[in-house]
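Hi everyone, sorry if this is the wrong subforum. Our group has a chain we'd like a structural model of before ordering constructs, and none of us has done structure prediction before. Sequence below.
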Amino acid sequence: MSFNVAGEPFIPKSVLALRDYNAKKFVADLIAGVTVGLVALPLAMAFAISSGVPPQSGIYCAIVAGFLISALGGSTVQIGGPTGAFVVVVAGIVQKHGIDGLFMCTMMAGVLLMVLGVTGLGTAVKFIPRPVVIGFTNGIAVLIASTQIKDFFGLKIDKPPSEFLPRIEAIAGHFGTISATTTILSASCLLAIILIAKFVKKVPGYIVAMVVGTAVAFALKLPVDTILTKFGGIPSGFPALKIPTFRADLILPLLAPTLTVTMLGAIESLLSAVVGDRMTGDKHNPNVELFGQGVANFVSPLFGGLPATGAIARTATNIRSGAVSPVAGMIHALTLLVVLLIGANLAKHIPLCVLAAILFVVSYNMGEWKEVPQILKLGKAPIAVWFITFALTVFADLTVAVEAGMILAMLLFVQRISTTTTVVRVTDDYIVKGIEHSLQLNPLPKGVAVFRIHGAFMFGATDKLSVITDQVDDLPPVVILRLRNMNALDATGLKALEELAVKLSLKGRHLVMCGLQNQAASLANQGDLRRHVGEKNLVMSLKEAIARANEILAETE
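Answer:
Right subforum, don't worry. Here is the predicted structure as tokens:
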């Protein structure tokens, strides 16, 4: 028995995967789970340390939350745990309200995430425009990198400020205390990770850097800060169940951070699930995923863990390592538990500068910097939304940043919709031109499928392209997309069209677009749509699109 939410069965992917599970799939999941578990170890500790809490909190989170997210979530290959998105928020909560405040905030966010999932509001996350998402992702990446400068160079700063500008000022003021030994070790690890990622992609660079860097520091007795010197080591054994202290006086002060943690958890997990879908061809259930994330975030603090969400890099590693079901994610959590039980005594020797090098790479990769040039091509309004979100994330607060970005995006939405309303006289010329767009007067040849977009194709509507992507393997060689009645387009919609062109191309299909009008055509010309679709495949009318389709069919015969 199961109930439906938003038209989909509310069943975890782990349950669905068991229907045809076998020994071959288990072996694939076992290899992938162990691999991603080892990759997650240094990341979990690094995220915890940079958040201002002991390293074991990150490991506990990866074990408990990682297992529950895979067991109860709506994605087949999602890997959950602590991520960079939470670093700045967690550090701020711990500084203002202590560790009890963090645990309360995480559990409150867990309840909200469960509510979002059960009520079907998980799909509401899609209404956040891409410039806003990229803006705060860029900002978080800059903030994470700035927190690692101290450990990377071995600077002697007792209590680095939590705000960005004071932190940079403190770093500049203490840069004379740089440690040459620490810098050489961290720079070597950073270079190793970059080179391994470029030339030996199947080898996890994070693991190599952590193992080799720790071994060198220990063997040569290098004078560098380690987990042992800073935190006294990592306690071995199972994470202990302990009910956090509930403080009623913190409920109101924690409301804003709770909403931030909820929002980040929802956005990050669903973005990661989408990445997993693109790499595997699967389709996640967003509401089940958010419910699983909610349970994980409610339970994680009971074992001393941090907030958790889907981790894009670890999810990608899981897929590349051969994962075929959520069992791989559960094995990843159990792998970390085994390491905690038998390897905690070795992990205490990991130098902090090595973890800083790892986080430099993580912050760069999570920043989605390749998206910035695309946004800069799209005109003043999307640039303003992106820049204000980015600047407020770095210099103010994540909650303020996203609120301001959303308000600007809403105003932009209203402005764009208003420009699509026209009142014109129907003339003979208008009627004649309409013939070129008529399906009745332009019969389709065999081997061609036609789809149309009617209305505004903006953030919140892009998932409707699943009508095409869900049946891509059954489509004919040529797909025509009629855009004559698409009266508005934004950066999120443009990105979705570009991704559709790429996906169809990878499946051996040819995409032809016709009828781009006014605002949509102007934005498409500023972006990379022509490059993805091809100059010849962007035409004005259905008649021209059918002619182009006939050319393609003749070329492929």
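For your construct planning: The chain has a mean pLDDT of 87. The chain has two domains: 17-150+165-231+244-372, 428-556.
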